[in-house]
Amino acid sequence: MKTTRIIERTPSAYAYPLLIKSILQNSLKYQPDNEIIYRDTFRMNYRDLNKRVAQLANVLTSIGVKEGDVIGVVDFDSHRYLELYFAIPMVGAVLHTINYRLSPQQILYTMNHAEDKYVFCHEELLPLIEAVAPELETVEKYILLTDGKIPEEPKVKLEGEYEALLKAQSGTYDFPDFDENTMASLFYTTGTTGNPKGVYFSHRQLVLHTITTAMNIGVQNNVINISSTDNYMPITPMFHVHAWGFPYIATMLGMKQVYPGKYEPLMLVKLIQTEKITISHCVPTILGMLVNSPVATQYDWYKWKVIIGGSALPQGLARSAMKLGISVMVGYGMSETCPVLSLAHLNDSMLEGMSEDEIVEERCKTGRPIALVDMQIMDDDGKFLPWDGETMGEIVARTPWLTQGYFKEDTRSVELWEHGYLHTGDIATVEPNGTFMIRDRKKDVIKTGGEWVSSLEIENLISQVGGIAEVAVVGVHHEKWQERPVALVVLSAGVQVSAGDITDYLNQFVDTGDLSKWAVPDEIRFVDAIPKTSVGKIDKKKIRAEFV
Q1: Where are the alpha helices (DSSP H) in 133-240?
Q2: Span 167-176, mean pLDDT?
Q3: 153 is catalytic
Q4: Which of 79, 395, 417, 513 is the most buried (most CB within 10 A)?
Q5: Tens-digit pLDDT profile for residues 287-309
Q6: Which tens digit of pLDDT belongs to each residue from 53-64?
Q7: Cα–chain-centroid distance for residue 132?
Q8: Annotated catalytic, 447?
């Protein structure tokens, strides 16, 4: 019987650990003069970035940071945040990206649960931290991040101001090697019940996610491809899943990077235009805000590529974006998956002979798993389901970069990894060619009239009615039919659409057999805005509560 041969390392050979410092080092190899920009106030190149990260590492060690310490960051998207993305894990500490959009009670819970020891905080967000500071159990020091305004009488003792601390330090630092499985990052994701859950990732996981995602978007023939010549700007908060991992990708490739600070529509548009942004990522609500702006047609968007995630991309919104010259497609993942699992796939050979409707449909699909991702659909008993385009099951996954559990929560971690696969809570079908299509969140499927109805399918159709800016559909309790769908609709400025117009449009699909009669909402309510979560997703939990 043959046995597996394990490669033995020569004692003098270097065991190369996959550490985040290798991503930063790569930024100096090819285009070190490319710029990193903050709003319209600050510019530097990659040589500056590497020097400032070294200075920041010296700051961290000088204030007492040790390997394993958890460091909280409360900031808008900035060059400083990018520097913290690198320096904190590169000295062996843990980067905790704090969601400043949570309630004060949730912020307090996450900081105490993470055991933050040091906190970097933006001047404008300092009152949030000051409000919970008396109940913080482990924080020892606070460092101020400022765009120029220093509080006169802060309610917490500040160790110093970020830029002043950097200037006092050397621009060189000998970053150590350590185990690649060392925890690098930690953040908290909110669920429908209970406290936020801590999700964590190692250096190895972040490096593998960076390389693999960059390869798929950069090499695989698709409607959206990236390279080192792209100009990148995130419109997904940097506190949320490492801004989907793109700051690490952009740095590894040496892209020009632009960080917008607080998300203000006029500033976002200004930066897209003046800095010639070519690649971004955001949730559908942000894209809709820009696309449906009354002044959207006054700008040139033709080189802007946008990867949409967080929730389904309605085909109506995709069409509106494409009419402006914006190239859009879906990327899929979640907080627990680092996050990228799949990307919509539409290559040159597929484009030949496809109608506009077919192209839009493909761009809006959940897509095909990227390299190194094992993605399946599973029933409640742990059985894999067929890829026939019709059978629905929960998406489960395995990759080298999935969180191994929830921080300090063993029971939830076991549930997350039931049957040896990470469970996403998303219900999908898979076409024979391996293309996934999410039909709904497990908790959002509407059970009505003896059928399961997808809220996403209804939203997608309503979005294609002319003049619809945004739509959300939820199931509400019904005495006879268990649940019935209701829709909240936001109209574009100056447009008139009636509930009857929407119902008539949906009934066309009922007549052709493409939509169940049970999917036509009982109520269509026109509103000025639809409730959102802290990361900009439609908050269906809050919407359902309004109808109880």
Answers
A1: 162-167, 203-219
A2: 98
A3: no
A4: 395
A5: 999 998 888 999 999 899 999 99
A6: 999 999 999 999
A7: 27
A8: yes
